[in-house]
Structures are given as structure tokens and as C-alpha cells.
Amino acid sequence: MRFRAVERNLDAIGPVADALRATLKDVLDEEGVACVELALVEALTNSIHFGPDPSAGPILVFLDVTDTEVAVEIDDGAPPVPGLFDGAGAEKLDFDPADRQNIPENGRGLSLIVLSMDEVGFRAAGDRSRLRMVRRR
Amino acid sequence: MLLSDELRGNLMILKVWESRLDASKAPTLRRALFERIERGHQSIVLDLADVDFMDSAALSALIAAVKKLGPVGTISVASMRLPVARLFSVTKMDRVIPVKTTVREAIRGLAA
User: What is the pTM of this model?
Assistant: First the structure.
């Protein structure tokens, strides 16, 4: 089900995330909703920063809720990126707390997606590609 | 972005009056923290009681401020809601940014 069309600017992400939260509040527990919301926001932010420019049209967000899972898909008009999530996860987020000056300021988005959702990957949808993120209920 | 600050002795309490801290707000948050640090405030408590969402971009602003403060200063956060607390836990930021249940507890901790 197509959920929202999101303009390619950072200010457009908040309302979509709020709408997602409202939709999922009776579907998942508080932590589950928080996880899906964070994954969506991180993915949309990445698309806006690194995806096609605004001339490609809005980013499409799809939401599918079944008895067993919540699936969020994003179509930003870009081709799939093989290996995009390779190495993403808890290890990537580790750092030395004693070495504050070298704590990375960026680069956590993909790991947060992977750690928030049960499945993350790309799938074909017609002649386009969608990032698919699934949280099991 | 709505912020207010209150000085308690040498402690700066910076209250965030926003429900979302995301990439659209991160530059403003970073500037707000940097301005206070450049004015000489070395002990800052960020009151997040009204924030029910925070992402990695906003976290980047906090990390930048921690680095700007250097070894002498401290930034702590207080009154985190579940989504923000989860972000801090998963990213292990609670190892470098003290997490307090309330602003009062943060004040006691920084004053000690």
C-alpha cells in the first residue's frame, strides 16, 4: 500500500514519520514503533542526502501490515546498491570512549537501520527497486 | 528550533522544546551547543523531556559538541523518552554522554 510521497527535503521527513507512528501505535509495542520510525527516518535522510536530486520526483514510501510483520518500503528512484549494508551493525557502532576526539560524528544511519529491523534489503518492484525493511510482530 | 536555557551556578541547562530532533534540526542544535561552549559554558545539561524522537544526525550534533568541549567539559542528557534512550543505548553514546533520569539528577551529578 502506498503510504506517502515525500518531497526530497529534510523538513518533509517529520510529518511522514509522525504519520507512521500514528498508524503503528496499535500494531507494535512502543519499542517496535520506535524502531520502525528510526529506520524509516534514517533511510529517508540517506535518500535525500545521497539519492537522486529533486528532479527525480518524490520519494515513495509503502507500508504493509500483516498479522506477522510490518514492512516499510522506500522507492527513491535510485538503483539498488549491492553491499550497501555490508558491515553495518553493532560492531560498526563501536568506538573507544576514552578517545573522545576520535569518536565518529557520522556514519551510523545504516547500522541503526539494520539494528532496528529484522530484515533489510532491496527488492524489485516492476522496473524499479525498493529498499525493504521488515519488523516482525 | 525552540530552545531555552537556564544557568544554575556554573551549570547550563538547555531545554529543547521540540518533539523531534532530526537532520532538519541538527545544524541548529549544533550551533546552539557551540555558541554556549564558546561563551565559556563547560557544564551543559540537555533537557530532552519533550523530545520523543532523535536520529543519528541530531546525535552527530551532540558528539561534535562533546569533542568541542574537550576533556574539561561535560555534556549530559536528562529526561530521555524511550526512543531517545534506545538510540543512546544502541549507539553506546551513554558511555560518553552521561544519562540522567531527571534534570535535577543531572545537576547533582555535574555539581559533584
Answer: 0.96
Specify the DSSP element, H or E, that contains A19: helix A13-24
B19-57 pLDDT tens trace: 999 999 999 999 999 999 999 999 999 999 999 999 999
Query: Could you give the ipTM of this predicted complex?
Result: 0.94
Contact assignment for A31 to B86 by CB distance below 8 Å: yes
Residue A33: how many CB atoms within 10 A of its CB? 22
**B82 neighbourhood in chain A, CB within 8 Å:** 30-31, 34
Residue A22 lies in domain: 2-136
Q: Which residues of B touch A34 (CB under 8 A)?
A: 53, 82-83, 86
Alpha helices, DSSP H only, in A25-68? 30-50
* Chain A residues with CB-CB distance to B90 below 8 A: 90, 93, 112, 115-116
Condensed to tens digits (0 to 9), the pLDDT of residues A24-45 reads 999 999 999 999 999 999 999 9
Q: Say which residue the cell 555539581 belongs to.
A: B111
Tally of domains within chain A: 1
The verdict on a CB contact (< 8 Å) between A97 and B63 is: no
The answer to whether domain B3-111 has CATH 3.30.750.24 is yes
